[in-house]
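[Q] Does anyone have a clean structure-token version of this?
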Amino acid sequence: MKRIALLSLLICAAASAQNRGERSLADAGYLANGFYVQAGYARGPSFSSFFDYINTTYHLTRGIDNFGGNASFSLGYISRFHRNFALDVGFSIYGMNKEFEVVDTVSALPESRIRQELNYQSAIFAGSLPVILEFSSKQPVVPYIGIGISIFSLRLDHYRGVEALRDTRTAVGGHFGGGVAVKITKKLWLDLRGRWHAGTSHLLTLEHNSGTAALDFREFEIKQNVAQFSLGFDYFFR
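[A] Here you go.
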């Protein structure tokens, strides 16, 4: 009972501090809460352990490169508890695709080849504490930097001929980012940002461990070295 009462007091104290922070920001002419919508470009992750294996195993004269880049979309919420500090919580989604052919080592037909395709999708849930370099509510350009935690929700669909395999994983990592916002109006800001994520996970593929049963799928490391660059709008509603 005492623990419940103490937890209730802590929640009330945090809510009271947040309310006081919002009131003090409003009194100084700053906006405290808003959301953002952005679109841009994401590059990564690194699945080199798989591609290096394919290049070596099938003796490819023209090696297969890593995943490249693709469009990404982001949505998030900003809550400022101080003029220069805030909590940023959001998520972004993007996908990558890679197609290639390898020699069919099982078929008796010469020069027989198998088409493979990797369809990779990721959602990144990020929470960060940005340092907002706004020293006046009338400042037209506001730069910021921040660090935080990234949670990756991964899905890989691997197609090889008529075979198909889907693997889903969750990984935890971190990120560093920064950007600059230009005030169009007091509530609407144009926001250009970059964010660099890092983390590690593993994904199953249709490649099999040699000398084992056909269903003993091979697992490869995937490094979440993801760079995101995006442009969008921040809207502060209070």
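[Q] Thanks! Anything notable?
[A] Strands lie at 33-43, 69-82, 85-103, 113-132, 141-160, 163-183, 188-198, 200-208, 217-223, 226-236.
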